[in-house]
Specification:
InterPro entries: ACOT8-like_C, Acyl-CoA_hotdog, HotDog_dom_sf, TesB_ACOT8-like_N. The chain is mainly beta and about 260 residues long. It has four helices and 16 strands.
Length: about 260
């Protein structure tokens, strides 16, 4: 891996200020961040908050509150609802330029117990075949698109688009990342994988990304089987099934603002 989405800002004792690199840049504009890097950074803050608690994250819900600039940002996480079995955690990202909140993440953390004997997946593992070229709009993009390996696959039998994605860069400097953070680094791309519209004609930006995980992810690469639905009034939704190399791990959903260019 070379490069990272964020660098620790020098001279910040609290360690909560990060410089955003150009690798966070969105396909919708080089000065706007793609949704996955902020999701991953806020996930990191929440994982740090529950370390050693005997709980693990079962749901992540990111709300994008405004344009997230490719600029220094400040992050903060806290416990919204405490509990031994169930805990609700929140994390927020603010622009350092104007102290504007730009993204907020809520997460349910649940106590873990051994349920191996009743564990079940409703989807079989996602097959991996020869890679197809990624979409032209992605291959021609800069910023975030250069930070992810995108292995497109043939569409599934129900018409959903399929791709395997893995981050090529670090999250913060060269610091270690967890598998959950690596999943967060790519899961926002479900909107691009399942795109139902031509990016030359339409903008379809997601305002949120919600992830439910019945099993924690493992490994470096994740499969997304995604599809979008577009309503008649400028609103759409993208849903996806999420996989690691061992099988089905959860689902994601995104709300879309759809506008003709």
């Amino acid at each position: 891996m070379t490069g990272s989405y964020y660098r620790r800002a020098p001279g910040t004792d609290a360690g909560d200020v990060f410089e955003s690199t150009q690798l966070t840049g969105s396909v919708w504009g080089p000065n706007l961040q793609h949704g996955s890097p902020p999701l991953a950074l806020l996930t990191r803050e929440i994982e740090n908050l529950i370390a050693g608690s005997g709980q693990r994250i079962a749901r992540l819900a990111l709300d994008i509150l405004g344009a997230i600039p490719v600029a220094p940002v400040r992050v903060h996480a806290w416990v919204q609802r405490s509990g031994r079995r169930i805990r609700l955690l929140e994390a927020e990202m603010r622009s350092c330029d104007d102290d504007r909140p730009v993204a907020r993440l809520s997460a349910w953390a649940l106590a873990t117990t051994d349920t191996t004997v009743v564990a079940a997946d409703r989807h079989p593992p996602l097959p991996q075949g020869p890679s197809l070229p990624p979409p032209a709009w992605f291959a021609q993009s800069t910023g975030y698109a250069r930070s992810v390996q995108w292995r497109a696959q043939p569409d599934s039998s129900d018409g959903a688009a399929v791709a395997w994605l893995s981050p090529r860069v670090h999250l913060v400097d060269a610091e270690p990342t967890t598998a959950l953070q690596r999943l967060a680094m790519v899961v926002d791309s479900a909107n691009g994988i399942g795109a139902a519209l031509d990016t030359e004609e339409y903008v379809f930006m997601n305002t949120d990304t919600v992830v439910h995980l019945h099993r924690l992810p493992a490994g470096e690469e994740f499969g997304l089987r995604a599809r979008a639905s577009i309503g008649p009034d400028g609103v759409g939704a993208t849903t996806a099934e999420l996989f690691d190399c061992s099988g089905f791990i959860g689902t994601s959903a995104q709300t879309l603002l759809v506008q003709r260019r």
